[in-house]
Amino acid sequence: MGAGAEDTAALEAQLFAYLENIPDPEIPVLNIVEMGIVRGVVVSPQSVLVTITPTYMGCPAMDFIAEDVVRVVSGAPDFNGRTVEVKLVYSPAWTTDWLSQDARNRLEEYGISPPDRSVRGPKRCPHCHAPDTKLVSEFGSTACKAHYRCLSCDEPFEHFKCL
Amino acid sequence: MSKDQFEYVLRAGDDALILGQQLGLLTGHGPVIEEDIALTNIGLDQIGQARAWLSLAGRLEHAASSELTLRDEDALTFLRDAPEFCNCLLVERPNGDFGDTIARQFLYDNYAVLWLEAMTASSNDEMAGIAAKSVKEARYHLQHSSRWVLRLGDGTTESHSRMQASLGRMWPYVNELFDVDELTTRAASEGWGVDPSKLRSAWDAGVNAVLAEATLSRPDDDFSMRGGRTGSHTEAFGFMLAEMQFLQRAYPDCNW
Ligand SMILES: [Zn+2]
Questions:
Q1: Which of B38, B125, B134 sits opposite A139 (nearest CB)?
Q2: CB contact under 8 A, A139 and B34
Q3: How far is B124 from chain A (nearest CA, A)?
Q4: Which whole number is the average pLDDT over B119-127?
Q5: DSSP class per residue in B90-148
Q6: CATH number for domain B2-217+226-250, candidates 1.10.10.60, 3.40.50.11740, 3.40.50.1820, 1.20.1260.10
Q7: What would the mean pLDDT of A46-73 be, rounded to a whole number?
Q8: What is the ipTM of this complex?
Q9: A153 CA distance to ligand 1 centroid (A)?
């Protein structure tokens, strides 16, 4: 038994930091850690267990995310040939509440109206910041977004739904 | 108990799978592009839920009789024959016209939300976890299908009469959703499942409220079709299954 508890904790923290390099395949402005998809990293002398949770049950990106996780974790320094297991969990259910304010700000800069529990739908147009918007469709290009139009600048935009 | 749990979870998986497959058939056929995207998004959610339930079902089956090969969600989806599927008949009704698709979705969503909400209290952590995740999606589907029932019911004379006719075509498949049998009785008494008959009054209240606002009348309950839970399916089911399973049957284990 080579690694002590301190080394294990350090490696877990380090792996978390590496996983921050993996962008969300559908919202590349956010990484999978700040999206809340990575739920935990547990290091033992022989193995690494990474638990991930889907934003939506049918999220087609989960298989790709799992592949990316294996690639990044097994390529990390100090990894020492451990086995990597990626486990998909559904509980606790993913929620937009896990997105930090910083993540929300970057979503808006990217052109996606961020989730906001204080309002029904988008707070404002991500392009011109006008408050008046209109729902075009409850379903957008991915399961986590709805499709809106700004009544001020007329531009269409996507809104990250509260979940 | 695992065998009971396998069969019970298989029902949930099959409901989600078959509805997801039906909605998937609408890809490129929605009445407008937004609705095309909506219906296929809902279908994708259903397939995602099906994967979770069926994967759990396979593991429960394996736990009950370890001499059986573990069947994963793909094996359960692509390599079972019609009599082994135990979805409710409602979800296998053909897409029909847009009114039929919406009526089927609306009646099912009302049931799914209530059933999943009740399942979040399951004593089985995995079942409760999948239900808690799924119910968030089901509520969103219900919001969507309810809006369409309102729009079409309280729309033009044409849309009203067609929505009413679609409701009538789907209604005979409602009672089966709430049927109690030995399996649901054991599931409920052991605390990991739900007595579906207890969901009926809330279902009636939710459906009646939307129908009233949509100026639609509630069809009579006098005629019911059942049999899906025990593997007796409608004629349309075989055709749907043939399309769904063709590739894996013709080219076993093919991958791309
Ligand atoms: Zn604008």
A1: B38
A2: yes
A3: 12
A4: 97
A5: GGGS---SHHHHHHHHHHHHHHHHHHHHHHTT-SSHHHHHHHHHHHHHHHHHHHHHHHH
A6: 1.20.1260.10
A7: 93
A8: 0.86
A9: 4
